[in-house]
UniProtKB/TrEMBL annotation:
Belongs to the binding-protein-dependent transport system permease family. FecCD subfamily. GO terms for biological process: siderophore-iron import into cell. GO terms for cellular component: plasma membrane. GO terms for molecular function: transmembrane transporter activity. The keyword Transport applies. This is Iron ABC transporter. It is found in: Cell membrane. It is a multi-pass membrane protein.
Amino acid sequence: MTSATTTPRRALSSAGGARRRVACLAIGVALVVASIVASLSFGSRAVDAAQTVDGISAWLRGETPTDIGALAVQSRVPRTVLALLAGAALALSGALMQAITRNPLADPGILGVNTGAALAVVIGIAFFGISGALGYLAMALVGAFAAALFVYFVGSVGPGGTAPIKLALAGAATTAALSSLVAAILLPRQAVMEEFRYWQVGNVARADWATMAIIVPVLVVGGLIAFLCASSLNALALGDDVAVGLGVHVGRVRVVAALAGVALCAAVTSVAGPTGFVGLMVPHAVRLASGPDQRWLLPLSALGGAVLLTAADTIGRVLGSPGEVEAGIVTAFLGAPVLIAIARRTRMKAL
């Protein structure tokens, strides 16, 4: 009797979960479309639907529109695309870091990866005369990987291994130390500070196609690796011993997924600056809505991150009109309460 009733219940639960995830996917796609329309339509100058269509049509034809509203729409296309790419990459990076560490506080900003990339870019500008997106990308990758390794090492030493709180504290301390080094390098160098000050809080205002063409290959490779690791990450959530019993190479999966997550974060940081909290907020919201299955969590997180950063950029332009509030400030304002709520939860040892 028990077996006969349990099987239908499991089938119904599985079917219900699948419907919920498909609904989340549909909602995510709809929100991406809505965020694109809002980003193109709103800013220091609001435009109507006809001007939005004219601006997009002219951009697709490679023409320069004569209407000022349509011209404003056309100028917003690159930053909208960069916001979508950057948000998706940051959320995907955060989801990977949370999965491989089983740490609810894992996030590129909290674990010092963003700041490590920023410090490396500043060093490249100040001491090696590096300029351009390719040079920034190379330095950001080096700095991000170095910071990630250092934080993981510091958070792993001592009794208890890599506990969530230890990693979060190690990341916070590393972020503070690296931020101080950034300030120490910038203060006596006015020219470098001018180059860096708009970039450091995270924004997509200086988006251009040439820059995006350089980082897109890194984002594509990192995203593909992340999605290919999804099933193995599900096994890791059951514990290392169970994962090994299921035939998963635990160390290899962690290294590969970590490389993908850090590369995604570094590529975005090199062009948009260290934008925080996207990788923390989005995976948590998606996990509550669709469950912990990484095969759904990763793509839904990418959609959610794209929506969040694009919306943050749009909100910043509207609130700061005729100037703008950088997207990184908006995401920090939204993310701080989320971080406090997560920190107050009682079960923080693992996801």
